Amino acid sequence: MTAALTYAFRRLRRGWRSGELLILSLAIAVAVAASGAVELFSGRVQAALAAQSGDALGADLAFTSRAVLPASLAEQVRAAGARTARVVNLPSVVFAGERSLLASVKAVEPAYPLRGAMRMADEPYAPERVAQGGPAPGEAWADARLWSELQVQRGATLTVGAIALTLTGVVTYEPDRGGGFADLAPRLLMNHADLAGTQLVQPGSRMQQWLLASGPPDALERVRGLPLPAEARRLSPAEARPELKSAMDRAARFLRLAVLAASLLSAAAVAICARAQGRRLRDEVALLKCLGARQRFVASALMASLLLVGLVAGLAGALAGWLAQAGLAAAAAQMLSIPLPAVSPAPLAKALLLGLVVLAGFALPPVLDARRAPPVRVFQRTETASRAGAMVPVGAALAVVALLWQQAGDVQLALYVLGGAAGTMLALALLAWALVALLAPLRRSVGTAWRFGLGNVARRRGASVVQAVALGQALLALLLLGIVRQDLLETWKARLSPETPNQFLINIQPAQIPAMQEFFAQRGLPKLEPMPMARGRLVALNGKRVTADSFQDPETQRWINRDFNLSWSDLLPDDNKLTAGQWWTAAQHGQKLLSADRYAVERLGLRLGDTVALAFADQELTFTVTSFREVEWDTFRPNFFLLAPPGALDAVPVSWLASFHLDAARKALLRDLTRQFPNVTALDVDTLITQVRAIVDRVVRGVEFILLFTLAAGLTVLLAAIEGTREDRVRESGLLRALGARTRVIVQGLLAEYAVLGLLAGSVAAIAAQLIAWALATQVMRIPYGPRPLLWLAGAGVGVVLVTALGWLSLRRTLRASPTEVLRAGA
Q1: Which residues have C-beta within 8 Å of that of residue 426, sequence separation ≥ 6?
Q2: Hey, which of 60, 224, 502, 552 would disulfide with 54, CB 3.0 to 4.6 Å?
Q3: pLDDT band per the 50, 70, 90 thresholds, residue 52
């Protein structure tokens, strides 16, 4: 074993000096560098984006409970190194003179919010500013609706429970106030120190207690490990806000796509290089056997040499990945407008392991196959059939499985990418074989250079197929992550266009709809299209009476403790997708049918055909579940967990809601709107949309940076595929020159061969990229995507240009060898 290791060291030093192992080492280094840089940078971007999404919760982490949170919990959180702020939400009647109103009272400590910023104004719809802490003791801020319904002015006295507070401002934005329809009551904000004086906190009081926490990642990790008090929940920003969770999920999918593509491309480069290296090793193995080396020594030496290549190149790649992500982070931090957290070395160890896995799966089988070269090869250079057989595909398959398990994080996403790559390989292989059959008659009708180029493709049938597959895979990645990536990202960004609805109107009465539509028309606003909404409470499932205690899941218990919002529609909304069952027909209008969103299905355990009984005021209706839907909540359009057909809710009390877009410069119109329709509640979600749009924009920039490494890996595959057959071209060119062929004809023939291979690979890669992009958009990203005919032309053109250009660069070394050297080597 010592002798084999010593020989491996010598061979490694000699091989690098002669350039023999350089391209294989480069492929390993690129694989590790790409994976390491992508993992490091994407991890930092995701952590930064997750931290930025804390602005929507007012904290990085929150504890919440309907019971009083123990004081010891705040002490434990602070001991862990995090900052805290207490918040209490409870309903209470607020009095202003003779007028009264049921409001949502929120008591906050001066440190609130820990993340993001609260904004206020001196009076409704006046210029707003960032609030420095909450109201002072003895003061209160209220939202515009409370000002309007109580008809108060600045300085008015408001009575909350047993305490009197002075109204000093309008709260225009709270980071942790949801943009949905659950928290519809007018808001009154007060200082937490005044809460005890209200005497509202009593045993059995309906309140929601919050303990907000914020701090560095290590402190938050310790906070997550704290034991939860009874009946308490721990929430992250994504869990608290479904709109942001949807945006973050899509961001993670894009980043994982980049990581997976870079890894697969790097593995392809290693496989191509190892295949060529295995062929070159046969001469060396034959010579060793002539000198008396045993099979065991040869196998040990080859494995040790490959391991040394992997370790040295892997460490170099890890260092390159570290430096690349550091430079990338420095360049991107300012453009991303968010601070990136400190880097962890753990992804580098993972990337180095990836390099060794790729080496073992893709490089080891063809290299070990070289140990079977017979000693007679020293005297007679005949090609022997490879006995690796199943070793190469089995080793590659195992490496791919390990790579997917390590890198993907999303099985569905990985299967789409891998399925597309496998389908492309099969299509490329079939088309390459078909091309060989068509070349025979075609060669007789073209010039000398084209006859030579097409003849090369026909003669090296197996090599041409392998090369076309490798080139096609690389071009597929370049197209998918270059042109198609832009389509996917721009389509995603377009979902939050500047015209996305940012205002919601609640509690519209049916008789007010014509007057309100006239109000919008007179002011040049888009036509208002209200939607009906009924509120019902769940009372029975499949004929069995249920309460909160009927469910074990705490989230379900909290959810069914409040009224459900229902609506009706004759058509399936554009941002809803039917996942099971059938949508109702016109003949079924008026029947008690129900379509449930995925969240309701999961919470209630619904199945098609189940019956759901809902109580609306003094009457109870039973519905049959006929379909399931998946709702895209991040479109900021009115959506409902439960939908019924038209006519099914005619007998229950109904109000209407509407959404529309209003420019910031025209928000004063809301004052006129609420004066004319004082019962209507206006909800401004513009800030929430801005938060989600900011996350999308930053993810897009981050992915674009990460894709630079993926594109570099794709170019490496192209180089490896061309360099892998360079020795064959050197031998053929030398023989042709020895027979009198002119250099110009040889060059033209080789370029014609490259152009044919590039055209074939680029055309099929473009078609595959279109299909994969459609599958990713519709099935994974949940965004619409149509055909891109120009992509097919771009794929063919890119394939011809790139492959021909890289082939031209390799021609210098191909033509450098003299005919005498080639004839001696083949003797």
Answers
A1: none
A2: 60
A3: low
